[in-house]
Design a protein that fits this description.
This protein is an alpha/beta fold. It is built from eleven helices and eight strands. Helix 5 crosses helix 6 (133-142) and helix 6 crosses helix 7 (149-157). The structure holds adenosine monophosphate, zinc ion (ZN) and fe (iii) ion (2 copies).
């Protein structure tokens, strides 16, 4: 079984339409793929139809933008009811906040002598639920100001760079509770990636588990082999499910091809069992993986 539990489509900042992504997953030999666009379920229906056509199993999911204190944390959530009101309100606040800062970023870039307009960014995100920094990056590439997304982040868009603007994100612990109450399971995405500090540490993960966290994304391109080994040990200690995934963004991110990291069949079954329990506790039907 080849299982990839973290991918992005054009509904957020990937470059494939949801149906294309599912067909690519089938072509890449995956048996199971989760669609986890940032803060939205808008791609689920299109992906589900493609999953039924191709025979790939589809896990509906999303990657939620949260903060733990001042630290930004991405929370993967699977098999949740996206219409659960407290969750839906937070998601819409995140999406509105993401798009609302684009004009400010554009002004900053114009101040640096780049002839970019809000419309250039909107043009790069026409299928997306919100316009984010990756779409600003794509506009900069199209205008010839940078060669790729990475250069755009390095020069302008990453935290501490001149066009960086803060946006709203949900409180991590609150969001873990919301996901559970919405009948889903949550997994911390790439917890130690792209940061010098290895936080949360084991005590931090224990507190998140107490709030209802189900797993840790251990095998991710942004983790070194040593970090993976230590995260795997923490997951085992705390009875958290250790997952692995590509964080595929189509051509938007290199070294993240579908299936580059995968989740074991045993870990996947554990996640499904926890999701079934959460669904029953939330009083909804056991959420269905499409094509299972
Ligand atoms: P936003 O939510 O609009 O701030 O955009 C954040 C998204 O940009 C993340 O979820 C990543 O997908 C992407 N991203 C963050 N840092 C980088 C980077 N250095 N290079 C390319 N993409 C990045
Ligand atoms: Zn992304
Ligand atoms: Fe992420
Ligand atoms: Fe991601």
């Amino acid at each position: 079984m080849r299982i990839d539990l973290h991918t992005h489509s054009r509904v957020s900042d990937g470059t494939d339409a949801p149906a294309e992504l599912v067909r690519s997953a089938a072509a890449a030999g995956l048996d199971v793929v989760a669609l986890t666009d940032h803060d939205t379920a808008a791609g689920w229906d299109e992906a589900a139809a493609a999953a039924r056509d191709t025979g790939v199993e589809l896990v509906p999911g999303m990657e939620i933008s949260t903060v733990d204190g001042r630290r930004s944390v991405h929370l993967l959530a699977y098999l949740l009811d996206p219409t659960y009101p407290p969750l839906a309100e937070e998601l819409s606040r995140i999406l509105v906040g993401r798009s609302a800062r684009v004009p400010i970023m554009v002004e900053r870039l114009r101040g640096l002598g780049i002839d970019i307009a809000v419309e250039d960014v909107v043009a790069e995100s026409s299928d997306a639920a919100a316009s984010g920094r990756p779409h600003v990056a794509d506009a900069l590439v199209r205008l010839g100001a940078v060669k790729d997304r990475d250069e755009a982040f390095d020069r302008y868009l990453a935290a501490g760079r001149p066009a960086f603007v803060e946006r709203y994100a949900a409180d991590l612990t609150t969001m873990i509770r919301h996901v559970r109450a919405a009948g889903g399971v949550s997994v911390i995405a790439h917890p130690w990636g792209r940061s010098r500090r290895e936080q949360p540490d084991e005590a931090g993960f224990a507190a998140l588990r107490a709030a209802g966290l189900s797993g840790i994304e251990v095998d991710h391109q942004d983790h070194t082999p040593e970090q993976r080994a230590r995260l795997r040990a923490i997951a085992a200690d705390l009875d958290l499910v250790a997952t692995g995934s590509s964080d595929y963004h189509g051509t938007g991110k290199t070294l993240h091809d579908l299936g580059v990291n995968t989740t074991s069949a045993a870990a996947y079954e554990q996640l499904l069992e926890r999701a079934a329990r959460a669904a029953v506790a939330a009083g909804r039907d056991v959420p269905l993986v499409v094509g299972r």
